[in-house]
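Supplementary Methods, section 5.1.

A reviewer requested that the exact input to the structure prediction be made available. We therefore reproduce it here, unchanged from the version used in the analyses.
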Amino acid sequence: MKKLALSIGLTLALAPTLFFTCQRSQAGANQHATAYVVQFPIERQVTQLTALEGEIRPSKYTQLIAEQNAKIDTIYVQDGEMVAKGEPLFSYDASLAALAVKAAENEYQFATRNIIELTRTAHENDPRINTAARAVDKTRSNLLKAQKALASTTVYAPFAGKIGQVRFNTGNLVKEGELISELVATDTIEVHFEAPPEVLNRFRQVLNSQPDTIQTSLVSEDGDFIDGKLRYVDSTLSLNRENLAAYAVFDNTKGKHLIGSKTTLYLNSPTQKAQLFVPKVSIHTTDGTPTLFVLDEKRIVRPKQITLATIKESYIGYTPIAEGIKPTDFVLTTPDAPKLVGKKIDPMVNLVNQLNEILSRTP
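The structure derived from this sequence is encoded token-by-token as follows.
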């Protein structure tokens, strides 16, 4: 009903103008033009974007720590080298590990024989039996640890990624707990960011009910959108913080995203929304502020400062407007619009196009 009323109102309001425009155009080609083309903003369903600043971090990271005292036998990788999951990184000298297993076996066998002998010869309340039993447990544990060390003399990449600085050379002795190198995953990256609760709460609600459905975007060097997924949003504010923390995950198999760098991330609206557009030629810049020129109810030209919208889709020749205009504003498309401020003009409208635009709008 509102569309119908607006359509009828448009027709009645512009009928005299259209009639006047036709008469004037028929009066002769040499007559000075006084009519200017105006049009409603167009409305389309779009994906609105919320821009936030974030930091690129690895999705996986691990330190490669020596699990026992050992001698490095072979290093298979170099600083900064890309490795696949399961690829060998370095190996320890197995001879030391084999000697450790042999020594642990001897200690365990001795402890076992000792408790067997005590059980056969000593009184059941003899305290030496408990001591011997503890020795069996300890030597068994040492043997299992030594066998594990022997089986893991070669260290493999737990996931695909990039090797950091290798801190030892072949032949070096390492102590248990020493850092040998680091491995950073590069096939995927996380973009961590913060935003006020009023921005992120609606995304968190959708994320909780429909996981893995909210798209996020980065912009490539070519200006194209690279899509990822929002994975996490804080449910409450941490102590002394005004913003919620969140992160999104992106594919990085081509290695174009630099770990540790800052970037602009765009949250995609969960559903498409109605968005107003105006012709690019109708936007003028006044003191750095984008401005439109529209007609008031008396057909007098008035300026309106506007805010441009950030959206994912693009429409050739049109610019999305976030704030500053109404769907019923008649927008001037002439380059002379700034000079007409305060003047009453005769508008020229493509009535069929404007009626179609009104009728196609979302209720």
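The first helix runs from residue 2 to 26. These observations are discussed further in the main text.
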